[in-house]
Specification:
single chain; about 500 residues; mainly alpha; Glutamyl-tRNA Synthetase, domain 2; three-stranded antiparallel sheet; two-stranded parallel ribbon; 20 helices; disordered C terminus; RNA-binding
Length: about 500
RNA sequence: GACCCCGUCGUCCAGCCUGGUCUAGGACACAGGCCUUUCAAGCCUGGAACACGGGUUCGAAUCCCGUCGGGGUCGCCA
């Protein structure tokens, strides 16, 4: 096994057959944290051996999402390194050569069985109550048999020989796991299209790239014996394995589209700070043991340890993500929030006046934000001259007493030209109209924001300034109270 | 079906390895309250779990066995 002093080399190896999923993202994160916390290297490798489903668009997006999360790689696409190339489709020669060597060494053999034959024999096995594994038909083909097949031009796969035996996986997270290899059968390492199978490509690449720790999803645990066999046949040290439990949807089922947001990119588009997603994902299946839940990336690196990883599956909780995210934004400087939010304002086609104004608004808005995109809705009264009134606000404003109060307030506010709204004017208006407490603040808020809840009212008034506030009050008076009065 | 993994509040975790300090702790969510002459934020309080059954032991959430439940894998997908 590996010497403790050997530097850690880990990798994250997504296949570009879809978007980067939160489950994969957590796997990437744990690998990255493990590398960072041990001073090791983090390699990124793209497993694009599924010609039908892999696309370069997905590769691009996955890379982009990993970058967005802040998980920089030491070797990989766009970065280079001593163990490249980092796209499996560019490493075909090594797989083919190695497969030939394994055949020569009698550790693998050509298999001419067609998929149809395989399917039929599998059905037979199942109907007889046997394991549906490859029966080894082509294992002992003679040279003549092979020649005959080749003359016919039959395609073939290459299968790796699995001898029945017990194999023990020493899992970093799960401990000893025993497998009975008589249940496995000879598996394919080269497909008939000349591409390596997943098992072969992973094992060879991990061997060639000097990977010391393979941290991946639990769905790969049953594959691990195959990979270990392959490492042994290469004559290299087998890396250590650690299998992470799955992330499940709210219904306890495997994460899928119907659970709503599952891809990293969607969270990005929704305006979650990447650090918040990283923080939440770290919490899902890992704990520092001391109860801390909010971390900077540096703290995460310092505290991370394989020991803190839990064995049981965990359910993704969007509400807790929101909590982490809001905590993150609460601590951020208004100017930084502005930088991250402005793209959302622009996308919404909002004329936000100028950056200084946005920064000022963020200072009062930030406590209401869960994501950066929230600024559009939750701060709409900051950006739009023609802000909308929601039902609750209309209900408040349609009361005649509120109109009376606002009318008096406007008169009292005549000399107000700068700073915050004079408390004296409010008090006098309250006295004169007989309206007080809850009503007056509700009224002012509803009038100038169109909502009955939101950020600190004084802050809003301050940011909007005397001119805008008075104008809005006048408009509201016109719109709600005057109309009412005329009718009655 | 076979094999493998897992099983503490609704959810995420701590405790389990090295049995007693656990009348099981924290967080999210939920409920109530405080603060603010509004709402939000913040603060406080509350309800809420050791899957079940055996065994070992003076003593088990912690160790052992079984049952049940959930998940995973059985592809020329990865």
């Amino acid at each position: 096994m590996n010497n403790v002093k050997d530097p850690v080399v880990v990798r994250f190896a997504p296949s570009p057959t879809g978007m980067l999923h939160v489950g994969n993202a957590r796997t990437a994160l744990f690998n990255w944290l493990f590398a960072k916390s041990t001073g090791g290297r983090f390699i990124l490798r793209i497993e694009d051996t599924d010609c039908d489903r892999s696309t370069s668009e997905y590769t691009k997006m996955i890379l982009d999402n990993i970058r967005w999360l802040g998980l920089s790689w030491d070797e990989g696409p766009g970065k280079g390194g001593d163990n490249g190339p980092y796209l499996q489709s560019e490493r075909l020669v090594s797989y083919r050569e190695k497969a030939e060597i394994l055949i020569k060494e009698k550790k693998a053999y050509r298999c001419y069985c067609t998929q149809e034959e395989l399917e039929i024999r599998k059905q037979e096995a199942v109907s007889q109550g046997k394991q549906p594994i490859y029966d080894g038909k082509c294992r002992n083909l003679t040279a003549e048999d092979i020649q005959k097949h080749d003359e016919k031009g039959s395609g073939y796969t290459v299968r790796f020989i699995v001898e029945p035996q017990e194999l023990i996986v020493e899992d970093l997270i799960r401990g000893q796991v025993r497998f009975d290899l008589s249940l496995y059968g000879d598996f394919i390492i080269m497909k008939s299209n000349g591409y390596p199978s997943f098992h072969f490509a992973v094992a060879l690449d991990d061997a060639l790239m000097g990977v010391t720790h393979v941290i991946r999803g639990e769905d790969h645990l049953p594959n691990t014996p195959r990979h270990m066999l392959l490492f042994r046949s290469f004559g290299v040290i087998t890396p250590q394995f650690g299998h992470l439990s799955m992330i499940l949807g709210p219904d306890g089922q495997r994460l899928s589209k119907r659970h709503g947001v599952t891809s990293v990119d969607e969270y990005r588009q929704k305006g979650y700070p990447p650090q918040a997603l990283v923080n939440y994902l770290a919490l899902l299946g890992w704990s520092p043991g001391d109860g801390q839940e909010l971390f900077s990336v540096e703290e995460l690196i310092n505290k991370f340890s394989l020991k803190g990883i839990s064995k049981s599956a965990s359910i993704f909780d969007p509400q807790k993500l929101d909590w982490v995210s809001s905590n993150y934004i609460h601590k951020e400087d208004p100017s930084d929030i502005a930088i991250h939010s402005i793209p959302f304002l622009q996308d919404a086609g909002i004329d936000y006046v100028d950056e200084d104004y946005v920064v000022k608004a963020m200072a009062v808005l930030k406590l209401s934000l869960i994501t950066y995109s929230d600024v559009v809705q939750k701060g709409s009264f900051f950006w739009n001259k023609e802000y909308e009134f929601n039902d609750e606000a209309i209900e408040v404003l349609e009361r005649c007493e509120v109109g009376k109060f606002i009318e008096v307030l406007l008169v009292n506010l005549k000399d107000w030209v700068e700073g915050s709204m004079p408390g004296e004017a409010v008090r006098n208006a309250s006295l004169a109209s007989g309206i007080k407490g809850k009503e007056i603040y509700h009224g002012i808020r509803a009038a100038i924001t169109g909502m009955v809840s939101g950020p600190d009212l004084a802050g809003i008034v301050n940011t909007l300034g005397p001119e805008r506030v008075q104008k809005r009050l006048k408009c509201v008076l016109q719109k709600f109270w005057m109309a009412d009065k005329n009718e009655s």
